[in-house]
Amino acid sequence: MKILVIGSGGREHALAWKIAQSERIQTVFVAPGNGGTALDSRLQNVNITDLHELVEFAKQEHIALTVVGPETPLAAGIVNLFRDNGLKIFGPTREAAQLESSKDFAKAFMKRHGIPTAEYQTFSDAQSAHRYIDERGAPIVIKADGLAAGKGVVVAMTLSEAHDAIDMMLSDNRFGDAGARVVVEEFLAGEEASFIVMVDGKNILPLATSQDHKRLLDDDAGPNTGGMGAYSPAPIVTPELHARVMREIVIPTVHGMAKDGCHFTGFLYAGLMIDDKGHAKTLEFNCRMGDPETQPIMARLKTDLLSVFEHAVNGTLDSIDLEWDRRTALGVVMAATGYPDAPRKGDQITGIPAETHDCVTFHAGTTLHDGKLSTAGGRVLCVVGLGDSVKMAQNRAYQAVEQIHFDGMQFRQDIGWRAIKRRT
Ligand code: AMP
Ligand code: GLY
Description:
The chain has 14 helices and 22 strands. By secondary structure, the chain is α+β, with helices and mostly antiparallel strands.
């Protein structure tokens, strides 16, 4: 069987790596892929990103099933296009992907369906937004409505930061159309967790829980990034909290989408803020898996992922259970110098250790030329260690990190600190 994975990040490397472990796999194509997917003999990179060309490729190669990693092709309607061409694909339609591609859509949806989230208002006029901010006071959160590659959220601790964010988005149009409307919402305090499920339109299959580290530097300092590391499971998500999030957030979301005539299929990722009483509110929805959460989650998945995707596209996710490695998996992202603003490319990468039963390195911004690996993006690698405790998984990951080198590499030393603190 031939499978196509769309994307080029660490998330897609991890998905393709896991799918390729199925005995029924002939080839896993990755479009466009990266240096790591190029190195793996079971995977094959395809240098196509145009959606119509991908449809032609899937037809020619008789691709049995396509899995979409990132949000951009989803928001552009890749699922609609593949389905219109009679091709099987796992992901949300363009309409359903608005849960991620429009913050205003997601907030209005949550309000309509009584799903816990921060209070908000949406503005396209700067003056009204400034007035509202003055009324509400700081801290307050300003979000560009559209996709802004993780840069469209300003958590303003002071009124002047909040007003600057409004000026940047609504007056200076820094994010173009994506920032033509802004959501201004209540600041929520607490600890974040990533709650990811698979949805086939009707049935919901939760994946293992995870947490990521969004800030660039140790002690959660520095600018927000796409994620500097992640681990699974997330001890903050107790079985009670898990049941409650399913009941109050995930099930009402899937049912609400169906009620609104927009059946959700694909990965649904609720970014949660959990307060000190253990109550969760939704910070955001993503319509895809998290990156880097996918890397530790895939490292723990024991079930054949191909069969999971088959159930997902056939509407039978209720007929399977997922089996997880009981160990903790912890991934450390190694990023290029200049990340997240202006990552440098072209540095040679050496020393990546071979995969073992307790360590695997997934590639993101890497490229392979004449047998040599070099950096080609902001987040370069995600090194995943597995261990019986968070501490052991962390030690294993950092042992491998120590062996890897590229000029300018930056990584956090403290991935997993919240989970370790919770356990001790
Ligand atoms: P989002 O893309 O909406 O998840 O926002 C990016 C990051 O901003 C989140 O991961 C949080 O760290 C932070 N954030 C977003 N919304 C809020 C909020 N209402 N209160 C506090 N922090 C927030
Ligand atoms: N790691 C956060 C995200 O994928 O959005």
